[in-house]
Amino acid sequence: MIKESYGITVSRHILDSQRLHPEATGDLSGLLSELIVAAKTISAEVNMAGLGDFLGQAGKTNIQGEKVQKLDVFANQNIKRRMASCGYVSIMTSEEEADAIPVVAGQEGKYTLAFDPLDGSSNIDVNVSIGTIFSVHRAHSGGQPGCEVDLLQPGKNQVAAGYIIYGSSTMLVYTTGDGVHGFTLDPTVGEFYLSHPDIRMPERSKYYSVNEGNSPFWHPEMHRYIEYLKAVDKQSGRPYSARYIGSLVADFHRNLIAGGIFLYPRDTKNPAKAGGKLRLLYEASPLAFIAEQAGGRAITDDGREIMEIVPSDLHQRVPLIIGSRQDVDIAESFFASRS
Ligand code: AFP
User: Fold this and answer.
1) b/e map of 60-88 (b: 16 or more CB within 10 Å)?
2) Entry pTM
3) Is the CB of 122 under 6 A from ligand 1?
4) Whole-angstrom Cα distance, residue 291 to residue 295?
5) pLDDT, tens digit only, all 339 positions of the chain
6) What is the distance between the alpha carbons of residues 302 and 339, in angstroms, rounded to a whole number?
7) Nearest residue CA, atom 12 of ligand 1?
8) Is 96 in the pocket of ligand 1 (CB under 6 A)?
9) Ligand 1: does its nearest atom lie under 6 Å from the Cβ of 247?
10) Is any atom of ligand 1 closer than 6 Å to the C-beta of 265?
11) Measuring CA to CA, which residue among 277, 325, 269, 279 is closest to residue 299?
């Protein structure tokens, strides 16, 4: 294929979207462009991880109590350094760091940024898809040094969210509230080209994604729902097939494109994670924005809309049920007794 025929680059797409909002100053476009540069650098390192010194653990544990991988450290530093001096952000938070991250003095912008630098990083060493997830809010203290309160906003206040998945190809998927658009990186040119315009999640699917090894610790409603998915009923397309990668960004991406429901409910396995495993600010909230913009839905296992939850802590965990709208609606009916 001739390269010119790839068409719209992500930069042009961002600028075209900006033109739809005459009040826009270009700051959000600038922020997204800077993030994309960081993502390209991470993509280049991920693609060659097996050749350099990037596989394996960095020898420390993060705020989540998880072993930090060397690529986690690289991705975190890369995003942090670039975004701290870009002039569009007033304060940041990373899944890898305990405290909010200030930006360079004098470079404060009007947005906040929450990011998971490398989601699914336990999959790095085995060459399975991983990704970077991001979420952007308007800071209350626009143009001033931001504070933690600026970061503790519900998902419904997001102005942009997205992820970069480092998979069989590197893809960027993002929304600014005008639908969800996907771009594929041509590594020979170093450019993301629009490959998946206006992504719509299938309304109903035949796939479920869950860590079934946790089933001894599930609540009864979860058992009943999964049994329902596995029961034979030709008319409603059951049994569903299971697909679980263990990188949320990869499981979500699969379900976004092919349809599916992902569940990580509360369980009794680890008292430290009694409220669920996944992080609200870095995982659940940005993916909920994308799911909703693509026609899907995201709730907790007691029927709360993810986008409505006001975070009380930077590293708050939530139960997450996300995916094709009708599948989430059916799951909700099983969990109704918990609400
Ligand atoms: P890591 O980034 O530490 O690998 O965690 C990944 C994750 O938060 C999310 O991406 C997965 O969906 C989930 O954990 C997998 O958790 P289980 O290993 O408990 O199934």
Assistant:
1) eebebeeebbbbbbbbbebbbebbbebbb
2) 0.94
3) yes
4) 6
5) 444 546 899 999 999 999 988 899 999 999 999 999 999 999 999 988 767 666 666 666 666 666 667 888 999 999 999 999 999 999 999 999 999 999 999 999 999 999 999 999 888 888 899 999 999 999 987 678 889 999 999 999 999 999 999 999 999 999 999 999 999 999 999 999 999 999 999 999 999 999 999 999 999 999 999 999 999 999 999 999 999 999 999 999 999 999 999 999 999 999 988 999 999 999 999 999 999 999 999 999 999 999 999 999 999 999 999 999 999 999 999 998 766
6) 5
7) 248
8) no
9) yes
10) no
11) 325
Cα of 233 vs centre of ligand 1, distance in Å, is 31
Of ligand 1's atoms, which has the minimum distance to the CA of residue 116?
Answer: 2
Q: How far is 245 from 166, CA to CA, in rounded Å?
A: 14
Tell me the best of 248, 281, 283, 318 to mutate to test the pocket of ligand 1, counting ligand atoms within 8 Å of each CB and taking the most: 248
Beta bridge partners, 162, equal: 134, 174
Q: Tell me how far apart the alpha carbons of residues 178 and 49 are, in angstroms, rounded to a whole number.
A: 35
Q: Which residues contact 286 (CB under 8 A, 6 or more apart)?
A: 114, 133, 134, 135, 155, 158, 161, 162, 163
List the alpha helices (DSSP H) in 155-204: none
Q: The tokens of 149 are what?
A: 């309160």
**Cα end-to-end distance, the chain, whole Å:** 53
Residue of 119, 133, 279 best suited for mutating to test ligand 1, as the one with most atoms within 8 Å of CB: 119
Distance 162 CA to ligand 1 centre (A): 18
- For residue 249, how far is its CA from the centre of ligand 1 (angstroms)? 9
Task: Determine if ligand 1 sits within 6 Å of the CB of residue 121.
Answer: yes
Contact 267, 215 (CB under 8 A): no
The DSSP bridge partners found for residue 194 are 183
Hey, CA dihedral for 224, 225, 227, 231, is it positive or negative?
A: positive
Residue with tokens 């960027």: 172
